[in-house]
Structures are given as structure tokens and as C-alpha cells.
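User: Run a structure prediction on this.
Assistant: Running it now.
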Amino acid sequence: MSPAPIAVTMGEPAGIGGEIALKAWAALHNNGPAFFIIDNIGRLAALAKTLRLDTPVQAISAPGEAAGVFAAALPVLDNPQALHLQVTPGKPSPATAQAVIASIDMAVKLVTEKQAAALVTNPIQKATLQAGGFAFPGHTEYLGHLAGGLNSVMMLTVEQPDPPLRVVPVTVHTPLAKVAATLTTADIVHCALVTARALETDFGIAKPRLAVTGLNPHAGEDGKIGDEETRLIAPAVAQLRAAGIEVHGPAPADTLFHAAARKTYDAVVCMYHDQALIPLKTLDFWRGVNVTLGLPFVRTSPDHGTALDIAGRGLADPASLIAALELAARIAARRG
């Protein structure tokens, strides 16, 4: 029996989600993994024509039809909320918010029911969704809510370099000025434990090794440059060691990301967003993948935004979506 296909959400319709899905099919239709997109077929067909992409689209009525269609066309599962969308590339509108949210909700339902092997989300425009009534900071928090209120964890990864780089920010969309006041020992421990479990179950690493960054320059220099390392981070590292996790830190962030350092760990728990994402995107901007850890289903996403500045111009690179699809398939195979 063929594995279930992967469900891909529409993402922000004024962004590049439709374009990269069309291009990802062109790259993968001969060798998979098979996927379908939850969207409006007329919208995607018109987009392919406008961008002069040689990607046929075909409607399906259920995910089980996708595998039989995938070699010949991009399977599209109808999103009723997307039927009459008025979209201008590069100009998002709160009027599309319900269609974007409906696509996510449908995909979660399908992956929860095992009709889809995994969920890959196209980028959303958070401010636009929130203007349309969306009450969550982003995908990670919303998916945790849909999974029953789980405190899920965001990992960003590039798997192709040797060694790979996997980073987990403890505070995510927190203003830098508020990070120190927001950071807690309990949150560091939670992120690290969820990460260690996921490295075992989803990445096949029998005994995961974690590194934990400091918050301040030089990891605080024994309290001379801030006390968060001694007050918050070192106690978290001690708790993790007591729980049997192989971990080192708090370590200066500026020494953790070169190739030799990456050989000493399987993932880095970082204290804030840019501390994690800048080295990852510098290492491989085009193939970064966002993975939500701690969910009962597999979810990945391209590690980039909606790219409104190039939407509708045929310039979008599908490499990150392709990497997200391939990683989702590998994780689903390990779980299933």
C-alpha cells in the first residue's frame, strides 16, 4: 500500500505559497513524496497560467485520490472558503483570513484522521490573519491549540550540511527588550525535553546531545555581563542532566555554530528568535525547514515568509518547501 499523501495548506494567497506549491510538484512528481494542496483549483490554474508554469492541476474529492493523480498533475482538494477570493499578489487582505484558517483546519483534521501522512503549511501573513480575527501569534501556537492545548515547540533545521544544524528558540515571537524578563528555567527545560524526545522519535537519534546557549555575550562571564546564565539557564541544564539528557551549556552563542562545534551536538536550545535563526539562515537560507515538535501529528513548513515583494512575479524558489515535504515524509515514515 502506498503511504498516505502529505497535506499542504494554501498559506497567504497574496504571497508565494501557490507558486512554490506548483513548482514543488514539478520537481517531485516523478519521485515523490506525493502531496496535495488544500486550495481553490481555479485560483491555482490561473496562477500557473499567469506565471507560465507547466504544472497541470487536478481536483480530488479525498486525499486517497492524490497518489493516483500525482504523477500527472498537482492534486487540489477544494477549500470551500477559497472559492470566491479576490487576491492581488503582494497585497494581503483580512478578507482572506477565514479561507487561510480553514485550509489549516482541514489539513489538521485530515492528518489527525490518518488520511494524510503529514501536514506542511505554506507561509501565512500573521498580521493580516490577526486583523481578520485570528487570535494566535502564529502556526506553532495555533497547531498546539488544535491538538488539545499542547505547549508545542518550534525547531528550525537544515539537514543537508555535514553536520546538520537544528535550533530551538525558547522565546519565539518575543520582542528582544522583553526576552530576559520572559525567560524561565521551566521553559528552557520544557523545550529541551521536547526536543530530546523528538530527536529520538522523529530523527532516529538514539541518544540525543543538546547544547544550550547563554543569553548574554560570553554567556555572562560568571555574572559580570548579566546574571541570567547563573540564575536561569545553568539550573535548567542541571535539571536536564538529572533527567538523563546529555547536555552542555550555557555556552556562548558566538562559538556554537561553526562546523567543528556542530559535531558536538544534535540540536541547540537558544534563548531567543534571532540567536537561533540567524546562524541557520546564514548556513543555508534556501533549504531551512520549520518543524513543530511535541504534536501528535507531523508538521513542517518552509522556513521563510510570504515574500510579498516578489509574489506574482515567478521568482519564488521552492527549495524550502521541497525540503519541508521531504523531511515531513521521513518523519512520518519513522513514526508509522
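Residues 43 and 83 are 8 Å apart (CA to CA).
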